[in-house]
């Protein structure tokens, strides 16, 4: 075993486990509510690198469960990062577009000011800050709108709803890059290996699928490729009230990730076709 992954059942963790030399720890082996248990797992396994692919990702639930989200999304990665720094291991943790306030229309650069609109984003931002403070060879990889054939995501929600609905209303004023979990897994492994050779590359990076799109247009593309007759009516965010506010602009500027690690933005349209095939949906 050479790379230790926190998370076993999640979208990115599932894709990471397709790679040889990856050992994934589920909640039973390391509960992220217990930061010291996470540090102890790293000490016990002594891997070549550590990737944190587990998180509290229930955006709306986090609004009424912020202390728990904070423990999982900040306390645990902080302890992992400190342990990795002490042992000289590269550490990669994944963060989110929801650390930004979504103002404007320009893509957010990795050093752009943050300003989360909700509890999930605040907990992820606290995680970023604590990981950075731990030092060592580390990367915080922010991504957005993750999808895959496994776990819960917007693609699977839309496909499920299309089985019973002729039409759906979907927000058209939130724009971002849908990102295949498989590509994120590959990026994490590439970055971890790079940090092992070049700790000076440590920092905060962005990685999102291309092209940027609204949730409404993403839904339309899902239905078109899957041959579903469900129609999509575009609506403003105000007409789809949710407990958590979400950023209107989730565009991420991914240029430094390509420049430093040679990792280009994946085209989500190709990955969507592949995901539908994996779900046994002809395209
Ligand atoms: N999903 C998305 O759209 C986006 C995700 N991200 C980030 O990417 C990363 C990976 O996300 P993704 O693969 O979608 O995650 P998922 O929501 O698919 O899965 C979350 C994973 O975290 C695990 N987990 C949650 N709480 C705990 C806990 N207390 N102890 C141990 N494990 C726990 C879950 O385990 P269990 O099955 O046991 O609950 C599951 O394996 C996360 O850091 C997330 O914040 C960033 C941007 C967008
Ligand atoms: C189901 C549905 C959702 N929507 C809207 C609500 C929301 O604004 C948008 C996406 O809804 P979801 O709840 O699937 O997405 P959400 O859980 O907010 O997704 C986020 O997850 C976290 C973990 C991240 O880090 C983010 O990058 C992002 O991917 O679509 C509709 O407009 N119509 C619908 O029928």
Automatic annotation (TrEMBL):
One of its GO terms (molecular function) is dTDP-4-dehydrorhamnose reductase activity. Its cofactor is Mg(2+). GO terms for biological process: dTDP-rhamnose biosynthetic process. The keyword Signal does not apply. Pathway: Carbohydrate biosynthesis; dTDP-L-rhamnose biosynthesis. It catalyses: dTDP-beta-L-rhamnose + NADP(+) = dTDP-4-dehydro-beta-L-rhamnose + NADPH + H(+). It is an enzyme of class 1 (oxidoreductase). The keyword NADP applies. Keywords: NADP, Oxidoreductase. Residues 1-279 form the RmlD-like substrate binding domain. Gene3D superfamilies: NAD(P)-binding Rossmann-like Domain (3.40.50.720), UDP-galactose 4-epimerase, domain 1 (3.90.25.10). It holds the Pfam family RmlD_sub_bind. Its EC number is 1.1.1.133. Binds 1 Mg(2+) ion per monomer. It comes from the Bacteria. Catalyzes the reduction of dTDP-6-deoxy-L-lyxo-4-hexulose to yield dTDP-L-rhamnose. NCBIfam families: rmlD. Belongs to the dTDP-4-dehydrorhamnose reductase family. This is dTDP-4-dehydrorhamnose reductase. It comes from Pararhodobacter aggregans. The lineage of its organism: Bacteria, Pseudomonadati, Pseudomonadota, Alphaproteobacteria, Rhodobacterales.
